[in-house]
Design goal:
The structure is a single chain. The strands form three sheets. Strands 5-4-1-8-9-12-13-14-15-16 form a ten-stranded mixed sheet, with helices on both faces. It has a four-stranded mixed sheet with strand order 3-2-6-7. The protein contains ten helices and 16 strands. α4 packs parallel to α6, α8 runs antiparallel to α9 and α9 packs across α10. The longest helix is centred in the last third of the chain and has 17 residues. It has a single domain, classed as Ribokinase (UDP-N-acetylmuramoyl-L-alanine:D-glutamate ligase, 3-Layer(aba) Sandwich), CATH 3.40.1190. By secondary structure, it is of the alpha/beta class. Helices cover 36% and strands 26% of the residues.
Length: 299
């Protein structure tokens, strides 16, 4: 268990740093990205004050701002001639059609000074946030820093996965780290890597395994958390929801295992209830207790 000092505190303020996307589903375009799905999970269902720093062009800014404001999520736009457009097939990103613009140090630090977040999400979708800048931000920020690795490992528009020692160093500086298990392209057995890297940091590292649940590594111990038995409807954004909810409950003083189980429960409920109310606090409490009884220690 980590310290429970934050339990019962007023609702935190969250800032996502990473581009909102337009997802091309072939027959239609919809808004997406970690700031969208994670932002909705926090703002709409937990009442968190949520902001997103994203590059956006004049053409699509009104659409993105309007859609997110429906859920209480506020965007802080960096003007750009481009917007990030991803092609989605069978719930997965298969190609990047346009990238959006990079977020520079001035953009990030000035927004942190304005928003003063309690939880900072560094969630690039495709290289718009450099690892060196992310390390500098993580080192200086005093709240909960949560990192999604997808935008740090994607290379080329064909989404080739490339790992680096700098990314490993960034992970050890954070409090929450998430990625799909396929994105941990570390060149060795993922469980062995999670065990080794988590021993030397205070990060809770979550490696999602889609319908199989996830691994959670913390201080040298690795657990397998199963997912819930659900009828899947739409799994886009499930990892973003998992990361956001786990980070929120860690901030509230829950242990990494408790926080991760709530994240897994929230992600499963989002997948099943994609076009209706996703979840509420009570359902997360009940289902996470169920998940805790099914957790297995694997290392």
């Amino acid at each position: 268990m980590i310290e429970a000092a934050n339990r019962g505190l007023a609702t935190p303020r969250a800032l996502f740093v990473g581009n909102i996307t337009l997802d091309n589903l072939g027959t239609r375009i919809r808004v997406g990205g970690p700031g969208f799905y994670g932002g909705i999970a926090l703002s709409e269902y937990l009442g968190v004050d949520v902001y997103v720093l994203t590059s956006v062009n004049d053409c699509y800014e009104p659409l993105i701002k309007s859609v997110l404001s429906t859920y209480g999520v506020k965007i802080l736009p960096k003007k750009c001639e481009d917007v990030a457009v991803f092609r989605i097939e069978k719930g997965k990103v298969v190609a990047i059609e346009s990238e959006g613009c990079k977020l520079e140090a001035y953009d990030v630090f000035s927004v942190i000074d304005i928003v003063k977040p309690d939880i900072l999400f560094l969630t690039p979708v495709y290289s718009e946030l450099g690892i060196d800048l992310a390390k500098e931000v993580t080192t200086k920020f005093r709240g909960i820093t949560s990192i999604d690795i997808q935008g740090f490992v994607r290379r080329e528009r064909e989404l080739k996965c490339v790992w680096s020692d700098e990314l490993t160093e960034l992970i050890t500086l954070a409090r929450v780290v998430h990625g799909n298990v396929k994105e941990f392209c570390v060149g060795e057995n993922v469980v062995d890597w999670l065990h080794r890297v988590s021993r030397d940091s205070n990060a809770m590292i979550i490696a999602s395994m889609d319908e199989r649940g996830c691994y959670l590594a913390y201080r040298g111990e690795v657990y397998e958390i199963p997912t819930l038995a659900i009828n899947p409807v739409d799994d886009v954004g499930a990892g973003d929801v998992l990361t956001a909810i786990a980070s929120y409950y860690l901030y509230q003083g829950y242990s990494p295992l408790e926080a991760a189980c709530r994240g897994v429960a929230a992600a499963a409920l989002k997948v099943e209830n994609a076009y209706s109310k996703w979840f509420d606090r009570e359902s997360l409490d009940v289902l996470s207790r169920e998940l805790l009884t099914m957790v297995k220690k694997v290392r």
